[in-house]
Amino acid sequence: MSDDRAALLAILKTLSYEEGEFTLVSGKKSSFYIDAKETTLNPEGMYLVGRMMYRMAREIPGVDAVGGVSIGGDPLVSSVVLAAYLEKDDLKGFLIRKEPKGHGTNRWVEGGKNLKKGMNVVILEDVITTGGSSLKAIEAVEKEGYKVKGVIALLDRLDGGQEAIESNGYTFKAIFNLKDVRTSS
Fold first, then answer.
1. d(C-alpha 27, C-alpha 41), whole Å
2. Where are the alpha helices (DSSP H) in 36-160?
3. Which domain holds residue 144?
4. Angle in degrees, 0-180, between the axes of helices 73-86 and 43-58, rounded to the nearest 10
């Protein structure tokens, strides 16, 4: 395991993983919860996530921009775009609203002046469970005229998300999966 990956995993285990009784966005009950925002809003965690997701995005041919659903996607997009800038790469960023604002432009996608219709984009996610929120984000972004190439996640809970995304024809990559987080160091 690379030093960056090991350091990020340690932060994720310490700050984001907890056991108890939880209800997930999907409605499923779980004996554990992963609040990835605790990791992505930590200075070192944000830096490492940005570097790693940037490299993963660049492994997907032709990607022009990365985007994520607010609120979990905000630190991901920001850190990846900053990592790209530090590499003198003009990778663009955008944010996806959970619903279009009811005034002004009624946009789903924010940051559109940095984008061009038809651009190849990747969706960034903090935690993937069933893939439902990723597929909803993909649909919103494609309706705005962008071509989604895939999804990159910080963590895959191994609950069918990868299969749902790939069965719809998109690339899926995750830095970690549930087994990584639940395994003792």
1. 25
2. 37-40, 43-58, 73-86, 132-143
3. 3-182
4. 70
Burial readout 26-41 (b: 16 or more C-beta within 10 A, e: otherwise):
beeebeeebbbbbbbe
Reported as a single tens digit per residue, the pLDDT across 49-58 is: 999 999 999 9
Contact 119, 64 (CB under 8 A): yes
> Which amino acid is residue 77, in one-letter code?
V
Count: domains in the chain: 1
- The structure tokens listed for 31 are 């004996």
Give me the CATH number covering residue 27.
3.40.50.2020
Residue 21's Cα: distance from chain center in Å?
24
Span 9-35, pLDDT tens digits = 999 999 999 999 998 777 878 899 999
- Please tell me the distance from the alpha carbon of residue 124 to that of residue 162, in angstroms, as a whole number: 13
pLDDT at 106 over 80: no
Cβ neighbours of residue 164 closer than 8 Å, sequence gap 6 or more: 130, 131, 132, 134, 135
**pLDDT tens profile 108-152:** 889 989 999 999 999 999 999 999 999 999 999 999 999 999 999
Q: What is the mean pLDDT of residues 171-182?
A: 96
